[in-house]
Amino acid sequence: MRIRWRSRICYKLLLRNCMVKGLRHVVLCIRFFRYHAYVLLTMLLLLLLWWNASEMEDCGAHRVVEKVCEEFKSRDTAGNLCKGLCETGEIKPGLCYQLQHGVKSFRFQGLVTKIASSHEYLWQRDTLSEGLAMNAFIHSVEQYIETQLGVTSSTKLVARLLKHVDVNSDDKLNLGEAQNLWRLLHQPFFLVFYLFQIIMRNLENHPGIKMGGQNINNLRYADNTMLIAKNKEDLQKLLNIVEEESRKKGLELNSKKTEVMVISRKQESPK
Q: pTM for this one?
């Protein structure tokens, strides 16, 4: 293979011949443009791969961390992971695991964090003022929950929520912890999801199927769940428990979206 080095003058002559004498130098023009087209396409491909790799590595993670740490330092937010993320640096957002349907997912040591790609918080802009009395805050939370769920008493639920957001486990709420709870309550469907998780925990001691030495009778995601049982009788018991506990929390099952599937080695027609 011979490598031919062309000077800038030679390139000008080739280009002029292609433009002025295109019909007489068709083969030369095709070779000239094809060679440079390959080079240009290769450069564009490398640029596209570089941009895609940088986008997947970052995915806006640094902006999310800066916003969270800014609120953590100003005591507007609190959480178990904030110290490791903002102070000690033990936790990093890691690489962008997935970007789909407007949601970014970050993976770090098996922990997956999902954030809206627009990075626009859905929290209410109303924030709590510093110096708010604890009794006044609890009263506001109770009123909000009772209004949203249509119940007359929410004392037990509020106590559970307060314990859940008490990061320091000192039976006291600082402004950041109270702010977190207030913002969470204003998240769309947060109360429904939270209550649903509580209801499903009541099924842990009821029969299901054995997998890996553990008893499994339900698989759930948000407010969707799959009840698992060995027979119809056990399945009906689980369904009755879910229905009863849901009613206590002011929720009800959607029968139109409820389906039953039977898995058996025997050939049975569905009923």
A: 0.46
